Amino acid sequence: MPAVIEVRHLHKSYGATVAVDDVSFTVEQGEIFGILGPNGAGKTTTVECVVGLRDPDRGEIRVLGLDPRRDRAEVTQRLGVQLQDGQLPDRMKVGEALRLYGSFYRKPADPEVLMDVLGLAGRRGTPYAKLSGGQKQRLSIALALIGSPEVAVLDELTTGLDPQARRDTWDLIQDIRSRGVTILLVTHFMEEAERLCDRVAVIDRGRVVAVDSPTALTERVQDGQRIRFRPSVPFEDALLTGLPEVTGLTRQGDLVVVTGTGNTLHAITSVLARNDIVAEHLRVDRPSLEDAFVALTGDRAATATGAAGAAVGANQPTSRRSTPCHPPPRPGPYHRPSPADPCWDGSRSPN
Prior knowledge:
By secondary structure, the chain is α/β, with parallel strands linked by helices. It has 2 domains: 3-218 and 290-313, P-loop containing nucleotide triphosphate hydrolases (Rossmann fold, 3-Layer(aba) Sandwich), CATH 3.40.50; 223-286, Alpha-Beta Plaits, CATH 3.30.70. Helix content is 32%, strand content 25%. Residues 299-351 have low confidence and may be disordered. Belongs to the ABC transporter superfamily. Drug exporter-1 (DrugE1) (TC 3.A.1.105) family. This is ABC-type xenobiotic transporter.
């Protein structure tokens, strides 16, 4: 399938802080492509360069064959974006917001249909401030889709939602993809990426450390299985550690944890049975995307979450307060406040 987004050797720095360091990936037509990484890893900065909100220092970006800076007007018409910190005026009603944003596009979707599909039909007259967290996210998705985009970029879509609202949002994303929209999804939730994404790019400290399907990434984890059980009688570790399938054995009180590859479970249970040992409360854990993520990023993920964001924030302008916010003054659902905008307070740090 043809690539709808191409990023090659992208670089972006803020002062001495490198936020994006030689990032490259492609997004194919019709897929859900995830950008996965800890807070401060460079995910949002990468996406903001992709959609044309930030100018990269170096690198090449193509969206639907277009340059998002040179061809901004055309890209805006064909790309829908939901940003991490998007907000609307408190008194703006759901229906009003959709009609306003729809007026920016050549071929807008029907607001009534979008509200019905996204479960907002009963909230068309509700002010933004009165919406729940889940309803605000649904509205954000609706605003990203009001232009009938070919590609939707969704940044940290389910952050702050309760578990049920998060799963409802996941169902919506899968439904959007089924309608032919290619999705670029930015997240730091492993379960979200594992459930939704066809492929993910793992970013750590501004660099891509892996690009593959969630299944393929989990297969990279060396310890293919983790088997836990409580033996009916004590036994020596050597009984199991001598098996070729076993890569490790640890004990947590009376609980035995064995890691291994291949047909480890059969090998272990066979040896235990021959020695009249019953494996009680046996449980088999297979590697998850989280295990793969930890293996790929190591301890760096923890430091990247806080240090990079703090360092980048130090390069941002100081806070200012101003007059009330107004609707976006330029086309597109991804208006971003600037120092000249009354909505801007300087608190947003790139990540």
